[in-house]
Amino acid sequence: MVESWMWMWIVIGTLALIIAATVVVGPYRRKRHRAQLLTNLDHHDWCRWTRSRR
Predict the structure, then answer these.
(1) Where are the transmembrane segments (predicted)?
(2) Is 39 left (phi over 0), alpha (psi -120 to 50) or beta?
């Protein structure tokens, strides 16, 4: 009985750590992705046809 409770808490703790890691890493990934998009802003195809062709 005690052993089954121990395994349950190990599983709950592991899931909590996975969720916490996802929450912590999320903003860093978004920030990096945004910075990458901003550096490559002039290299997208849509920039070519949005500019005037004079």
Answers:
(1) 6-28
(2) alpha
